[in-house]
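Encode chain A's predicted structure.
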Amino acid sequence: MQAVQFTGHGDRGVVEYGAHPDIDPGRGEVRIEVRASALNHLDIWTRRGLPGVDLAMPHIPGSDAAGVVDAVGPGVSRVAPGDRVAVSAGVHCGDCEFCRAGEFTQCVDYHVVGEHTRGVHAERPVVPAETLVPVPEGVGWETAAAAPLVFQTAWRMLVTRAELRPGESVLVLGASGGVGHAAVQIADYLGATVYATASSDEKLAYAREMGADHTIDYEAENFAERIREQTGKRGVDVVVDHVGAATWQDSLASLARGGRLVTCGATTGPHPETDINRIFWNQLSVIGSTMATPGEVDEVLELVWAGELEPRIRATLPMSEAAEGHRMLEERDGFGKVVLLPDSADA
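Encoded structure for chain A:
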């Protein structure tokens, strides 16, 4: 099969597209014929190399894909050849104390397809059967591929972890990215007043189209000062921050007393300065969130399949141009997700 792959960590130059040995599904595994896959910032970090993650090379990246079941391994009964499926990349052991309590994303062996193990940016990848979710007829492959990772992440952040309620206010940073544009839509769906940041008039217009009530160009003005101004110095109830070190202090400064900062990532670095005085004096909550449980995935994807929520596609590229997709994410070029199609789809 043909696959996106790299044999060592580095810049975009390490990304290749070429032949990779076919893989047969083992016990509990499924091989899918990919019709579309999608990029995430996670793919950038995996390519560069993550501390403590020792990948077998060559590594196939990618956590998002959708397609048709091609073959199943021993012990698989929940899907069959010909089924339409998408990949929800979180894998848990099912037996530790956290899994037994239903907290699957806190599993002691929790890992993500494409980050810790072989990914899905290939023609016929193999994945654990537990990662597959059904895709209804009528849902486009690009939508099915682009939605799972970012929408489940944003849903758990806002619904489960931050417990966002109707009538509250939320600030979403980086609204043009995958998690950001999903969070804007979900917050609007939940009945919140939505503030969103982005870096251009075009991206801000897209954010408003997705449901943002107020938008801020973070390159033209300090978003914390703007939030205080727009809320009469009160601040917002929830901040969604997946940016990290570059925004952390201003995220805390944007919160109302008793507010909640929820984070799922650190694109600009994991070691920010923290205003501890502000945290305890204003009784703020800093909340971490990772991926989602299978039940949460089902909840949010039902809304996507029904058209209530929609992944915005910034570009569709052949898999052989995956490096260009990496560039688009790194340089913040566009709004929403980058989708990759197998080159054989053009044949």
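DSSP finds eleven helices and 17 strands in the chain.
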